[in-house]
Amino acid sequence: MTIFHTLYDELTGFLGIGPLLEMYKSGNYSALFTFNGILQAISPVIPLLLLIEITRAVIYKRFKIEDYKIPFLVYVLNRFISRFVSIAAVLFCIGILEKFAVFKTTFTWYWFIYGYVIWEFAHFVYHYLGHKVRLFWCLHSTHHAPTAMNLSVTYTHFFLEAPYADVIRTSICILAGVNPPLLFFIMFIDGTWGAFIHVGENIMKDGRMGFLGKIILTPSFHRVHHAKNPLYMDTNFCNLLNIWDKVFRTYQPEQKELQIEYGISREMNPGNIWDVYFGELYCLWKDMMAAPGILNKLLYIVMPPGWSHTGDHKTAKIVKQHYLSGKASA
Asked: A Pfam family matched by this chain, by name (predicted)?
């Protein structure tokens, strides 16, 4: 019975329906009139969309087990390894840094706008570093390993990525004066939208979303971000507001004539959980062991993926430059 109880808890936890079931059992729905109750009522939306996405794929005979196998295994693995690590990192940063904030904000609509702009900047910083620093890429690459886009990809993360991401994002926001209740509200919105933009073509064939694509980052933009096409590499780092991608010139709309190729550029086995989860760390270790001298070994940790001590660099920037120069000369 213990096993079935555990499976029941895991299933209701994944679907986000635990609190709703408790309300149903008690017959007391007063919590739905509170802020936390509203958040709990919304939380099942993404898991429900994932189930709809899978169902539609089965009905239209587009379901491939390999598209969902690795995200599922990564999710299960992370449940065993890092259940509470990320929230602990957030609370630690708040406790340490809140007294150093440049000023204090409140939970009002105008500070919400300010807070969200700051949050997007913090997210941009974390995400940019995740692509430009080899060690951080080792943590982030698991999320880019799937070769198809669907909602299960949102659960595909190396267990240390969330704590490292939240330390950077929380630290910037707290120091910029975003108060904790407002920060948690923003994080909820960001997490919900950040999950939704992984929606696959089985639910949303065209992810551009019409005029909204001019205002926010839609699933189309995030599909571009997950592409390994040279033109699309290292673009669209923001999550909802595209302001910082435009400021730092990493904004890239989807090109109709260019078919998206998902995955990462190194040769790998996307169906192997160990390659997806630990492959980049292993490659980093091999490069460090082969590099002469302490300095070169350390440079492999902090330089962008594709950097080489031999000068034969294959970074995203160089790959993109070669691609664009080839198109220009064609």
From this structure: FA_hydroxylase
DSSP H or E run through 2: helix 2-15
Taking the C-alpha atoms of residue 250 and residue 243, their distance in angstroms, rounded to an integer, is 10
Confirm if 96 and 167 have CB atoms less than 8 A apart.
no
**Residue 177 — left, alpha, or beta (φ > 0 → left; ψ -120 to 50 → alpha)?**
left
pLDDT grade for 260, boundaries at 50, 70 and 90: very high
Give the number of other Cβ atoms within 10 Å of residue 309's Cβ: 18
Helix pair 65-81, 273-290: axis angle to 10 deg: 70
Nearest alpha-carbon partner for 144 in 256, 226, 27:
226
Mind listing the pLDDT tens digit for each residue in 88-110? 888 889 999 999 999 989 999 99
Spans of all domains in the chain: 66-278, 279-329
- 54-61, Cβ contacts within 8 angstroms, sequence gap of 24 or more: 54/150, 54/202, 56/202, 56/203, 57/150, 57/200, 57/202, 60/202
Beta carbons of 263 and 143 less than 8 angstroms apart:
no
**What are the residues whose beta carbons fall under 8 Å from the beta carbon of 112, sequence distance 6 or more?**
182, 185, 186
**Cα–Cα distance measured from residue 322 to residue 231, given in angstroms and rounded to the nearest whole number:** 10
Tokens of 146: 């799937």
Whether pTM > 0.85 for this model: the answer is no
Nearest CA among 18, 136, 28, 10 for reference residue 79:
10
Contact 291, 300 (CB under 8 A): yes
